[in-house]
Amino acid sequence: QKEVEQNSGPLSVPEGAIASLNCTYSDRGSQSFFWYRQYSGKSPELIMFIYSNGDKEDGRFTAQLNKASQYVSLLIRDSQPSDSATYLCALLGAALIFGKGTTLSVSS
Amino acid sequence: NAGVTQTPKFQVLKTGQSMTLQCAQDMNHNSMYWYRQDPGMGLRLIYYSASEGTTDKGEVPNGYNVSRLNKREFSLRLESAAPSQTSVYFCASTSGTYNEQFFGPGTRLTVL
After folding, report:
1. Of the residues B5, B10, B13, B66, which has the maximum number of CB atoms within 10 A of its CB?
2. A87 contacts: CB under 8 Å, gap ≥ 6
3. Which 28-87 residues of chain A touch chain B by CB within 8 A?
4. Distance from CA of B89 to the nearest CA of A (A)
C-alpha cells in the first residue's frame, strides 16, 4: 500500500521567511509527485508537480525530489500571510494518494 | 470554462435517505474521481473512472455507488445515508499530459 506521510504542523513562520514543507513516501517505485494548497473551507488547488530528481522552481515555490531518500519537499520563499493554508503532498498511483497535510501559518 | 462543477454545495440528510451528488467537467478530461475529506483523515478516494464506461473502487467505496454518465459527468450516489458519511465530498478530473488533478468546489454533507 502506497503511503504518504506529512507532519501535520502547524508550521509557523514570520512574513518574509522561507517555509519548508516536507513529505516522505513508502513506495520506492513512485514516479510523480504533486503539491496542493488548500485554504480553510475551499477545495485543493494545484501548486506544482515534479517528476525528476532535483529542484523545480515556479515563482516563490520550489519543489525538491529525492527518490533515493523517498523524500519530497516544498519551499516557499518570501512567505506571505496569504500563504497560510494547509499544504497537501500527493503521489500518483491509480489515482492521487494524499498525505494528511501540513498547516502553515505565516504571521505578519 | 467552468472547470469542475459540483451540485449541491450543501446538503443535510436523515439517516436512511438517499441522494446523488453531481459532478461535471468541461475540460475534456478522461479520468474523474470522487474523494471524501474528514478532519484528521485527509483526502480518501471513494471511486474513480479512468475513462467513459469504466469505474473502479478506491480506498473507501462501501456505502457508495457511482455512474459515469458520459465523458463530462460522474455522479456519486448514497443509497442509504449513515452518520459516518458526514463529510466533505470532492470531485476531481485529470489532464492526460502530466496527470494534474483539478478539483471541484466540494459538497458539504451532513447526515443526522
Report:
1. B66
2. A6, A21, A35, A36, A37, A38, A47, A74, A101, A102, A103, A104
3. 32, 34, 42-46, 49, 51
4. 10
